[in-house]
Amino acid sequence: MIEIKNIAKSFGGRQILAGVSGTFKQGDTSLVIGSSGTGKSVLLKCMIGLVKPDSGEVLYDGRNFLESDLNEQKAIRREMGVLFQGSALFDSKTVLENVRFPLDMLTEQAESEKLDRAHECLRRVGLEAAADRMPSEISGGMKKRVGIARAIVLNPKYLFCDEPNSGLDPLTSIKIDQLISEITDEFQITTVVITHDMNSMMEIGEKIMFLYQGEKLWEGNSTTLTQSHVPELNEFINANKLIREMEK
Amino acid sequence: MSRLGSYFIFLGTLFRNPEKFRVYVSLILNECTNIGVGSIFIVALVNSFIGAVTCVQTAYNLTNPFVPKNIIALIVRDSSILELAPTLSCIVLAGKVGSNIASELGTMRITEQIDALEVMGINSSSYLVLPKVIASVLMFPLLVIMAGFLAILGGYIAGTLAGVISSEDYVSGLRFEYKPFGVTFALIKTVVFAFLISTISAYRGYNVRGGALEVGAASTAAVTNSCVAIVAADFILTQLLLT
Question: Does residue B140 contact residue B93 with C-beta atoms inside 8 Å?
Fold first, then answer.
């Protein structure tokens, strides 16, 4: 379980996050939604330690990540898997090398074990045939799947996905969402997904947190999403023509 | 001043919490190939021609019949070893290697590859930059040794083909009043230049914020800053070691 308490962050006097709190449970796919510029990605970066918040706490199963010493932070980081918005695959490495990279860097496993595990993860995301290809030779959807394979190769307890559907067609988006949801169930991971994709919200939103101008305005799930009385959330949802048509 | 301070802090991060030694070995070998082997052609070409031009121009300017011809070779030798091979080669390398380092790291930064390393708990600056610095410090002196040799050879070929100096005069000039410390001085300068080029370029690339435009700007800044650092260090080292 991940708990965030009063996370606040400003850049150059401009408040991006204004005391956001929430809980993300193990085995759930939790979504953080909101329009562009509301602080979703900054919140994610605060949670994974890429940005230091001005105040607040991030607790991983009770362990205070921000207060921990370097070794403890390293240990917690090794329990995280992150899928970045642009997949962040290493250009100079093949798909297989990308997936086995965390094993090479962070474990003392034998070569055969690492290779087996990397192939197993690629098989899990349906990309074993692309193992020897370079990231520049595969499509955006495939890159996302390789990113997922790399994120889960160390059996993480926490999985973070930053806009996993950006730049993908609706069908590929649904496949990526389903893959994230299946992996969360299968390995009982605590998954946090940053998105503004309506399909994702309806498809995998077991728990949804709505951010507006750096504040949490609403919390619920995909069933209660369309029944909220928060005007900002309704405006956000109704920007999607499909939802408007469905509501009619 | 604040940029200078953040450069020194950046240097500190290269050596803090390094990864396992075996990780660096293959990375350093790869970088040696990229930085060293990949630069042989341009360094060889530039220095051969510079040596040739130095020889012909010196001969053109030495019109006094009382000055022996072998002085031309002495001037080619000393200017090549002391200045042209180390400094000019390193300015060429600042353009080739420095811009490459800055743009590579800058691209990794804007495509979140550096963030991916950080999230894994890997010291990204040490993992990405230290092998480049070590490879530069190892390979640049080898390139400069080759550069010095080719500059003197270029002078010999140009001088003898143009008929401005005979083969015997050139060889005797090369042997005349030779001070071995010149080579040591050139290598000391090269090691300092290699460190400056690789770290300044890495600092510029690693700290890119924005997009493709900023990566281009960082690459340009890496080359110009490195060139300024080279000429400043050249003057300081010459003052310290040759006076």
Answer: yes
- Chain A neighbors of B122, CB-CB under 8 A: 105-106
| Type of residue found at B118 | E
Dihedrals phi, psi of A24, to nearest 5 degrees: -120, 115
Structure token digits, residue A235: 């405006």
Does residue B1 lie in a domain region?
Answer: no
Among residues A210, A198, A203, A211, the alpha carbon closest in space to that of A184 is found at A203
> Which of chain A's residues have a Cβ under 8 Å away from the Cβ of B21?
none
The tokens describing A184, both together, are: 């969360």
Please count the structural domains in chain B: 1
Is residue B94 in a domain?
Answer: yes
Token pair belonging to A43: 């919140």
Please report, as a single letter, which amino acid is at residue A203: E
Residue B120 belongs to a domain: yes
Question: Hey, what domains does chain A have and what are their CATH numbers?
Answer: 2-247 (3.40.50.300)
ipTM: 0.86
Tokens for A195, please give them.
């998105």
What is the C-alpha separation between B82 and B210, in angstroms, rounded?
Answer: 41
Percent of chain B with pLDDT over 70: 100
Domain that holds residue B69: 24-242
Question: How sure is the predictor about A247, in pLDDT bands with cuts at 50, 70 and 90?
Answer: low
- In one-letter notation, the amino acid at residue A238 is N
User: Which residue shows structure tokens 């590859």?
Assistant: B113
Q: Which helix (H) or strand (E) holds A22?
A: strand A14-24
Q: Mutate one of B119, B128, B215 to test the A interface: name it (highest A CB count within 10 A).
A: B119
Which of B163, B162, B167, B169 minimizes the C-alpha distance to B68? B169
